[in-house]
Amino acid sequence: MSTLRAALSVLDNATAVGVDVMPAAGAIEASATGLGAAEAGRRVLSEPEQQELILREADELAVSAAMFTDAEQAAAQRAEADALRGLVEQVD
Known about the structure:
Layout: H1 2-14, H2 47-67, H3 71-91
């Protein structure tokens, strides 16, 4: 479950609007009014972009697994990486 949450977080972070896109503060009288008027839309990722991000996360987990001296922790990291790769393979 934690692996899926991490993958969703990666995707959620990738769709966040960059600070450079946010409107600059100005005079109060020129500010947006109304519910949601100042909200910025999130990026939309294509399916290949989503898959690439998840595979990159899997690669990072595999590298992390290689750094563990505890075999149990390393195996857990490798299992998480394999689970993410399996998700991408199911979609293809």
